[in-house]
Design goal:
Elements lengths: L7 E9 L1 H8 L3 H9 L3 E7 L2 E7 L5 E7 L3 E5 L5 E5 L1 E3 L2 E5 L4 E7 L2 E6 L3 E7 L6
Antiparallel strand pairs: 1-2, 1-11, 2-3, 3-4, 5-6, 7-8, 8-9, 9-10, 10-11
Length: 132
């Protein structure tokens, strides 16, 4: 399937195994609580194989990763660690090897589903007509 339409703004909807995941990546406890209760908005800009992936956290903090599928890029984790990764496309999913986990992202039923090492599954619903 060549369905790679990731572009859009997605609002955090729910998670599975969040606690296990944040422990595994070593997120500080204040960030864990913030992450659990906050409405993260993920904004994806896509131009062919070029992506800009931005996560907006309450309070104005953002994390942005820009990458081209198949090329090594400088990336940053939610916790602020910098690393190099090559994002690949496998079965319509974007796949990246982060330092402590494997991260996949796909569009499923109009929602952005991000899975980290199969430990945590985050689901984001697409925002509609929201002022920016």
């Amino acid at each position: 399937r060549g369905d790679m339409a990731f572009a859009g703004k997605y609002e955090f909807e729910g998670d599975e195994n969040y606690d296990d995941f944040v422990k595994k990546i070593g997120l500080p406890s204040d960030k864990v609580e913030m992450g659990r209760n906050c409405k993260i908005v993920t904004e994806v800009v896509q131009n062919g194989n070029d992506f800009t992936w931005t996560q907006h956290f309450p309070g104005g903090r953002t994390t942005t990763n820009s990458f081209t599928v198949g090329k090594e890029a400088d990336m940053e984790t939610m916790g602020g660690k910098k690393f190099k990764a090559t994002v690949k496309l496998e079965d319509g999913k974007l796949v990246a090897e982060f330092p402590n986990y494997r991260h996949t992202a796909e569009i499923s039923g109009g929602k952005l589903v991000e899975v980290s090492s199969q430990v945590s599954r985050l689901v984001f619903k697409k925002q509609t007509n929201q002022p920016t």
